[in-house]
Amino acid sequence: AQSVTQPDIHITVSEGASLELRCNYSYGATPYLFWYVQSPGQGLQLLLKYFSGDTLVQGIKGFEAEFKRSQSSFNLRKPSVHWSDAAEYFCAVVGRGNNDMRFGAGTRLTVKP
Amino acid sequence: DAGVTQSPTHLIKTRGQQVTLRCSPKSGHDTVSWYQQALGQGPQFIFQYYEEEERQRGNFPDRFSGHQFPNYSSELNVNALLLGDSALYLCASSYGTSNTETQYFGPGTRLLVL
Question: For the segment B40-78, what is each residue's pLDDT rounded down to a tens digit?
Fold first, then answer.
């Protein structure tokens, strides 16, 4: 079955510290992979996406993600977190050839001053 | 340039009623997708509309239906509301139906069914 797992429901980091949010997927073939961020009262905003090629993907707001086929993972990273990064983060996958995008349950990020 | 807009922002209905939610896509976009986001969950794909036709559908019952108008705006209709239909309903727009196109999401309509 196609699924996306975000193992961490809630993460707290100090401002300026590094961040890694985990994402694992189960899919028949390598899907397209995405990370979205959702702030309260806002829609989802795309941070970055991976289709093929270089497995390290750069996104907006200083985020990057690394695709690891052997681990079926697509973890999101940021070297130094800002207070404005506090939000809900969603990993998503979609199969090549369909539009049924599957989202993980999300990881809520809290940033301590 | 307006992004994706949705109306209303909030809605309260009772079980068995019907509801219509509306979405205007980002300028230049012709494809609209709808998602249901239950509290504490990620969004779930309901369906996608392109050229006024439903192109793909997720695992939702026929109580969920939609429409796309010639100006690319879209409506989501839910009949015979259940308590479990309470959720944030998100609309996303893109240009074309390719899943490599970036989807832009609206702020959502929060539906509460009592």
Answer: 999 999 999 999 999 999 999 999 999 999 999 999 999
- Res B1: pLDDT: 64
Q: How far is A6 from chain B (nearest CA, A)?
A: 10
Among B18, B14, B8, B35, which residue's Cα sits nearest to residue B104? B35
CB of A76 closer than 8 Å to CB of A63: yes
As for how many domains chain A has, the answer is: 1
Q: Which CATH superfamily is domain B5-113 in?
A: Immunoglobulins (2.60.40.10)
The answer to whether the Cβ–Cβ distance between B90 and A44 falls below 8 Å is: yes
Q: Which domain holds residue A73?
A: 3-112
Residue owning tokens 């999101």: A76
| Residue to test with chain B: of A100, A107, A108, most B Cβ within 10 A | A100
CB B109 within 8 A of CB B62: no
- What span, in angstroms and rounded, lies between the C-alpha atoms of B104 and B111? 21
Task: Specify the length of chain B in residues.
Answer: 114
Cα–Cα distances in angstroms (integers) from residue A36 to residues A84, A105, B81, in the given order: 15, 12, 29
